[in-house]
Amino acid sequence: MATKPHHDADDSAITEERGVYTFRPRAFNIVWGNDNRYWRIPSRPTSARNNNDEVAELVQVSWLEVTGVAKLESSITYQVTFTLSFKENASGWSGCPVFLMAKVGKKGKYKWKRLKELESLPKVPTEVPSNSEPFLVEVPKDVPDKRLYFGLYEVWSGQWKKGLRVHGATVKEKK
């Protein structure tokens, strides 16, 4: 087991281009992420490995908490999505209340959406939530702290889950 059980975000794994913030798996804070009994998280990519091949793989947890922070530039509406898939051996997700939550600023109020897609997520990378039911967060103009705190959470059931693959996330301006 690692000395520090939780994985701290690596800011170098976040890119921003034209209002789209892209988070690779190393860009997240992941509870129990440094303990390989629970998660497999990629180390820094080498020149031989493509950043798009990175995946954080859930071995097993009863407390799912995968979070990120985007330092936003302007006061507009953003769409938040995670790219996820299941491994063949995924289990423990049926009826499990997994939520996408976000707030603007450290003292902001959380907005949330239950991700029912995780009850039947395919084995191929899929954006969650779908564009037909987007998760939108508005950044008010009068807020001094424009950081967006967001994440995937399932900390209520105590149910063991396994087989989730986190490919990344995007926070993009909704036009």
From TrEMBL:
<dbReference type="InterPro" id="IPR052147">
    <property type="entry name" value="PP2-like/Lectin"/>
</dbReference>
<dbReference type="GO" id="GO:0030246">
    <property type="term" value="F:carbohydrate binding"/>
</dbReference>
<dbReference type="InterPro" id="IPR025886">
    <property type="entry name" value="PP2-like"/>
</dbReference>
<dbReference type="Pfam" id="PF14299">
    <property type="entry name" value="PP2"/>
</dbReference>
<protein>
    <submittedName>
        <fullName>Protein PHLOEM PROTEIN 2-LIKE A9</fullName>
    </submittedName>
</protein>
